[in-house]
Amino acid sequence: MALQQVAAYRPTKPELAVFVSGVTSMGLEILAVRVIAPQFGNHIYTVGGILTVLLAALSLGYWQGGKRAATASTREMSWLMLGTAVYVAVVIFASDLLLTYTSTLALPPRYASLPAVIILFGPPTYLLGFISPYAAELSRKRGTGEASGHVYALGTIGSIVGSGATTFILIPSMGIDAIGLLFGLMLVATALILVAPSLPRRPTVASVFIALILVLAAAGGPAIFDVDHRGEIVQETQTPHQQLEIVDDDNVRTMYLDGARHSALNKDDPDEHVFTYTKYFHLPMLMTDEIDDIDRVLFVGGGGYTGPTDFAEQYDATVDVVEIDPSVTDAAEEYFTLEDHEDRDDLNVYATDGRQFLQNTDETYDVIVLDAYKKDQVPFHLTTVEFMELASDRLADDGILHANVIAAPSGPAAEFYHAQYETIDEVFPEAYSFRTSDANAIQNIQVVATNDGSAPVFDEKVLESRNNERAAAMGVDLSGAIDNKLAEPDTDDAPVLRDDRGEVDSLLDPMFGQRYVIEESDGGSVEAEAEPGEPAASLAG
């Protein structure tokens, strides 16, 4: 009987409006993360800011809608839908420009994304907040409680649909502009249904006009505001995990993930290490007894696969790569030097989380390279003492861990580096650090730890001797890395990172808004990432 009632159910116009507003509001909330993250990062402050702003806008809309509900009508709800659709067109057309302008505001870094979120997503969410109290007023339910409960249920069901569809279907298969266009046209179609079948002239003409604006915004926005200083965008896509871009600037091809550079290729000389720090991945080869003893290597994080392919070609070893995003691997195959990994015996790719992989594998590794950190997006479960213990268990008795940590060598921006070093040192007998830039700015600091308590102490003299012996076999000269060996940091005030304590975000906080430099092998030039709150021009190295 209940199934028959569900099959026979036909929503009223107010009920349809509530459902669509739930779909759209939650869809925009998910979409906001993807719009904001490339400019401001995907850290907890960005996500928390989006949730805070959108919930505040929705609450304000509920409150104002409740005060006006006595005069509510389906026609007024139609205009609310059309007004929201107009603002979605603004988001599609001008989001890049607004993000650029708001990023220059002089705000503390943790709050830098709030103006952009308020401007882009506050107004449409506020307008959608009116729909629920209007629908409750127009409901056919007898009591206030029944009407409110019915509206809350329909809105929540819509939110579930919007959240699930946007996360699992739309973002993996469509671009941001196309998804925004879909939401906008959905609002326009709902507005027309609300005034059907009479279709008064004004809302009907407005609906057609707004639909045209949405289409033009989706078609013309990116082209008009295409002022990308980085070079020619060869590919741009939204993956289930991040925004992925491939950019060509003369002979250098760079992979950007959520707006941050992750890998680079010299198209004229594919074997060159464009980023100096990728040479440092070979440091474990100076700390093993014999290079030929390295049989199996694990990279946690693939990116453009510069390190993994280098190891597979240089050493007689099997290289396993855990890259959680299959789209990154596909891009590495198409635009970088990664050959079809399915046809290779020396390189295996696993599309899963690094910690889950280590928990489930029975393999023992001679070297584990941890290359999954970003400047402002660090997966905390790959930083803790529990993870380091797991990595130690999966290493051979004389195995070596290499972690690419992004932080400053000293000062407030070194807090994460000090905590990560202290955590690694808690598990491994010896740990060593190497800076990759002479600047005291945020950079790629390489932390190398030995699993063998009886291994010799690797001071500069020992490392230089082994580098002289092994440079030819490694294919790189690490004398520059050895010169950049750091003294053991003062970690007296640094915490040991643990699974049950969310300290990583607070440790990253001093790095927000600070310059991040990446040394390049080409003449030792320094490149800098523009950060929220600072004009990009001030960061040119």
Automatic annotation (TrEMBL):
Listed GO MF terms: spermidine synthase activity; thermospermine synthase activity
Region (Disordered): 521-541
Regions crossing the membrane: 16-37, 44-65, 77-99, 111-131, 151-171, 178-199, 205-225
Gene3D superfamilies per the UniProt record, alphabetical: Vaccinia Virus protein VP39
Entry binding sites for S-methyl-5'-thioadenosine: 242, 323, 353-354
Positions of the catalytic residues: 371
Enzyme Commission identifier(s): 2.5.1.16
Catalytic activity: S-adenosyl 3-(methylsulfanyl)propylamine + putrescine = S-methyl-5'-thioadenosine + spermidine + H(+)
Quaternary assembly: Homodimer or homotetramer.
Family stated for the protein in its record: Belongs to the spermidine/spermine synthase family.
Protein name: Polyamine aminopropyltransferase
Source organism per UniProt: Natrialba chahannaoensis JCM 10990
